[in-house]
């Protein structure tokens, strides 16, 4: 009979008493010593959480005036968390979502949006937390006038709009290299096509397809 290698025991990460329900893990840093994601509060809204191997999960809270939040990325060293925080109110005109940067135990801070945009989401952060990428849009999030990939750099006064591939109608940045110099994402033309792009400080490059 074939012998299977002995498996290690799965570890329970613990529970934050303010977020007792379903949990979604989205990223980890420091070789798994830091884990981030979102959990659902007793009121049914998402809150970003942060876990490290020295204690239980911690609720990262929300931006001022917001009702929910999501942690979507963490730096390689585990010190900087990024994501978005939102106010999902009844009227579409009063709903908003903004990208955040958080360095626990400090409170999350918004990093704004692209010039002319109304909202943003941060998807990824580089190794030391100095470069953040994501998407920013104008208009209602569910039916925006446009969506553009962005790059935010620590010390900069505004986000950099990375634009789109030729003939495209939208884009979003999903990954960034450890040194913050290379951005990977996708760009699309309505429902006609979607392409993966590589950005290295100049124009987007379509990496092609089969």
Record the SSE blueprint.
Layout: E1 23-29, E2 34-40, E3 46-52, E4 58-61, E5 68-74, E6 81-87, E7 96-102, E8 109-112, E9 119-125, E10 131-138, E11 146-153, E12 160-163, E13 170-176, E14 183-189, E15 193-199, E16 204-206
Antiparallel strand pairs: 1-2, 2-3, 3-4, 5-6, 6-7, 7-8, 9-10, 10-11, 11-12, 13-14, 14-15, 15-16
In whole angstroms, the N-to-C terminal distance is 43 Å
Strand order of the largest sheet: 1-2-3-4
What Rg do the Cα atoms give?
A: 18 Å
Low-confidence stretches: 1-7
Query: Biggest sheet, open or closed, and with what strands and sense?
Result: 4 strands, antiparallel
Total number of helices: 0
Helix content: under 10%
Shape: globular
Number of domains: 2
Percentage of β-strand residues: over 45%
3D architecture notes:
By secondary structure, this protein is mainly beta. The chain has 2 domains: 14-112; 126-149 and 157-210, no CATH class. It is built from no helices and 16 strands. The chain has a 4-stranded antiparallel beta sheet, with no helix packed on it. It has a 4-stranded antiparallel beta sheet with strand order 5-6-7-8, with no helix packed on it. The model is unreliable at 1-7 (pLDDT under 50).
